Amino acid sequence: MMEDYYSQFMVIASDVMNPLLEYVHQPWFFYQILIIALVFGAAKLLRGPVESRLEARARSIKGHPGLLRFVIALLRRVDWILFVLLLALALVVMRSMTWPSRSYLVYLALTLWIAWLAISIVSLVIRNRAIRRIVAVGGWCYVALIMLGLTTEAGTILDNAGISVANFRISVLMVLKAVVFMTVTLWLAISIGNFLDHRIQRSEELTPSLRVLIGKMLKITLIVGAVVIALSATGLDLTAFTIFSGALGVGLGFGLQKVVSNFISGIIILMDRSIKPGDTISLGDTFGWIRELRARFISVVTRDGKEYLIPNEEFITREVVNWSFSNDLVRLDVPFGVSYDSDPHEVIALAIAAAQSVSRVIDHQKPVCWMTDFGDSSLDFVLRFWIRDPQKGLTNIRGMVLLALWDKFKEHGVQIPFPHREIIMKTPVEVAAGSTSASGEGGGGDTDSK
Q1: Phi-psi region of 413 (alpha: psi -120 to 50; beta: other; left: phi over 0)
Q2: CATH topology of domain 264-322
Q3: How many contiguous H segments (helices) and E segments (strands) does the chain have?
Q4: 330-420 architecture in CATH?
Q5: Closest to 275 measured CA to CA, from 288, 290, 260
Q6: Core-most of 45, 293, 379, 424, by most CB within 10 Å?
Q7: Is 401 exposed, middle or buried (0-12, 13-18, 19+ CB in 10 A)?
Q8: N- to C-terminal Cα distance for the chain?
Q9: Which of 321, 317, 318, 282 is nearest to 302 (CA)?
Q10: What distance in Å separates the CA atoms of residue 369 and residue 235, rounded to the nearest whole number?
């Protein structure tokens, strides 16, 4: 097998190398090499002055970020651009003075350099530097094979290099095609999915949960379709993946249980619309509002700026308090007590007025105050009021209401009692002169009143 592949490779290599060796022995080949080297040196010498002028012009660009990025990309490739321009000028001069065959190498160098310049600039849309470099080199190599007329020979060599598994053959050419098609189709699917998802999120006719659900289902459908299309375009028989899909199913059942569980839980949450972006929730000790729903987790932002990425499964299996599930109204209670010398009717009126003076307390749901108990040292009340913005915090609004109560009570002379203790000594107590402590023998009883 390897011997056959080696012999085929040598035959193709000899067919390619023989014309090349004949061309190398011609005198104009070395003249063209010298011209290319001189043009390259001239481009390097002219880079400094041209780059300084372009940099001065680039600094004057204001309010056009797209144009500025393009100019910066050109600044990084000034020597390449100068080399292309000077080499094109040299090619025009050579074509006007001699036969085109004597300038073929210059023409080939110019074409390949233009292709590399264009591919390197276009590949800047890829943010990952390593992937960008691989795409640029791979694209340039393909263009070079086309320009040299070697696509058929290269395809034959790559197709002959492969292995056979049962009745299925995998070659290097097939793998390369699959990678290219998969990359292109996935990029298109993700780009189209993000565009459609952005349009859906801006729709006011759909609920937030339905927007997220439709967006995620569209993305999943497009990605699955892209994979199927890429594999079919490569020439792979999809029925060959039956065994692989069965093994993958077993792997999902054993090794990826949590991942699948979180994904299915996320779909359930979106379908029953129990949680949506913007809702204020409490889950265990976490209190915050939903920022984003993802396939695996839900992003919850708390009042202190922390962002918790809670798995979707937690929202299915644990008790969740959604403060804004059916509406955005939230009632809060503030208990307090006043001295027995106070008039309960006046206290109730003052407490309601104090709550109404706080800006976050809504007006159409009036605050109420009820007397709840005759305490040990105070008349006990509870003040109840409503707010619409629990995501702005609950402790701070309770604090503002308590300060308003303090101001009202202080203004009208209402006393807020403090706990006191009465100690009854069953035996006589001797107080030493100058001593500030009392002691006695025997048991003592105390009564604690609050």
Answers
A1: left
A2: SH3 type barrels. (2.30.30)
A3: 14, 12
A4: 2-Layer Sandwich (3.30)
A5: 290
A6: 293
A7: buried
A8: 95
A9: 282
A10: 76
Structure tokens at 13: 């290599």
Please give the Cα distance from 135 to 132 (Å, whole number).
5
The domains of the chain are located at 2-160, 170-255, 264-322, 330-420
Backbone angles phi, psi at 36, to 5 degrees: -65, -40
Phi (first) and psi of residue 383, to 5 degrees: -105, 125
Rounded Cα–Cα distance for residues 130 and 135 (Å): 9
The three-point CA angle 2-7-10 to 5° equals 125
Token pair listed for 38: 């001189």
Single pTM value for the model: 0.47
